[in-house]
From TrEMBL:
<dbReference type="InterPro" id="IPR018200">
    <property type="entry name" value="USP_CS"/>
</dbReference>
<keyword id="KW-0539">Nucleus</keyword>
<dbReference type="InterPro" id="IPR050185">
    <property type="entry name" value="Ub_carboxyl-term_hydrolase"/>
</dbReference>
<feature type="region of interest" description="Disordered">
    <location>
        <begin position="207"/>
        <end position="231"/>
    </location>
</feature>
<dbReference type="Pfam" id="PF00443">
    <property type="entry name" value="UCH"/>
</dbReference>
<dbReference type="InterPro" id="IPR028889">
    <property type="entry name" value="USP"/>
</dbReference>
<dbReference type="InterPro" id="IPR001394">
    <property type="entry name" value="Peptidase_C19_UCH"/>
</dbReference>
<keyword id="KW-0963">Cytoplasm</keyword>
<protein>
    <recommendedName>
        <fullName>ubiquitinyl hydrolase 1</fullName>
        <ecNumber>3.4.19.12</ecNumber>
    </recommendedName>
</protein>
<keyword id="KW-0378">Hydrolase</keyword>
<feature type="compositionally biased region" description="Acidic residues">
    <location>
        <begin position="221"/>
        <end position="231"/>
    </location>
</feature>
<dbReference type="InterPro" id="IPR038765">
    <property type="entry name" value="Papain-like_cys_pep_sf"/>
</dbReference>
<feature type="domain" description="USP">
    <location>
        <begin position="1"/>
        <end position="191"/>
    </location>
</feature>
Amino acid sequence: MARSTLAIDWDSETRSRYYDEQESETYEKHVSMLQPQKKKKTAVALRDCIELFTTMETLGEHDPWYCPNCKKHQQATKKFDLWSLPKILVVHLKRFSYNRYWRDKLDTVVEFPVRALNMSEFVCDLSARPYVYDLIAVSNHYGAMGVGHYTAYAKNKLNGKWYYFDDSSVSLASEDQIVTKAAYVLFYQRRDDELYKTTSLSFPGSFDGGTRPGSLQQGMGDDETCSMDTN
């Protein structure tokens, strides 16, 4: 909301002569001042990020598309669709914001599921297999633009326990430690066919309301070309 501000620097004698402290508080308040202010959203859901990633977007005035027919730059739209997903799904959260004037680090908490991430509804191929994923690792970034420190959480395939990796230090971790504002890259592994038969394919609930969390990038491709050794 645009607003104007008037600042006056009084000297002591002039202020005592012309300024009345009590009179200054007798102004008529606009009704908007009586409305409770909305709290700033502190978290968004991964589901919201994916929905926005696959939503049609109108390009801005600074990103026109050159039409080969009329030979002019025109405002256009773009849309990303998912046709298939790999066994190992890599979700890269946008943690850095860029525009023509400044760059910034985004510290919004993105709530992501540790188990049963259902991507089936976002895949265009209706005949495709169910896509249900479990989290196996998270790469974290701490710091600001140009500087920072990376750590990671990873799940041991043999004992099913989570561990925290910080340079040469490795310690046991719990699931409730994994979802933080430092999460930068998420690694999910698709469940096999046997698990599909006994697993519910529901997506965890998302947070209500909130501002646009920004864009999201996902690793996509065939199983043969997008594989990872998780041993």
